[in-house]
Amino acid sequence: MKNDLNQPTSIGRARRTDSIRNRQRVLNAAIALFNRKGITVPLEEIASEAQVGIGTVYRNFPNKRALFEAVIQETMTELIRSAKTLAAQQDPGTALLDFMLLMGRSAKLKHSLIQALSLTENSASAALQQTLQAFNMGFGQLVVNGQKAGTVRSDVTVADIRALLAGCILAEGNQHATTTTEKRIRIIYTGICVHRSN
Question: Which pLDDT belongs to residue 28?
């Protein structure tokens, strides 16, 4: 009798686990396809990439806007984790540079999604606003650590660096550009660092 009573709970737990796993598969597929083909990829193709039915996609993301926000949140959450890891494991200057390079790799996709949503921090959902705030705090801590270590100029702000990185992303869309995004980011990093004369 005891096993019979516990069986519905076990089944419910398994279903929740499957649901969480399927949602993550859809998210991973969306991120991969958006990076490869752009954000106009149809939901049916995302379902095929994730190896789930289209109904599973719609159960988790009722429309493409919901999926766009979820992809932004997933990308930002990964960056927040990376910021914490870098701050704990590396010297402040190297940590900031590595984080800026990570941002450069994900910024093109995030920029496209935000443009498609006409999204600002004020118009984002409460959950996404919270994630954006956590991202700014993590990024800001890396900048402050670099300033305390005497590596980063004291007048540099997170807003400054984000604006400069946005310029990199816009330049990436120029067909005649010959400089890579990584090289531009390294140039920006050199510009925000303290340079001591011998």
Answer: 93
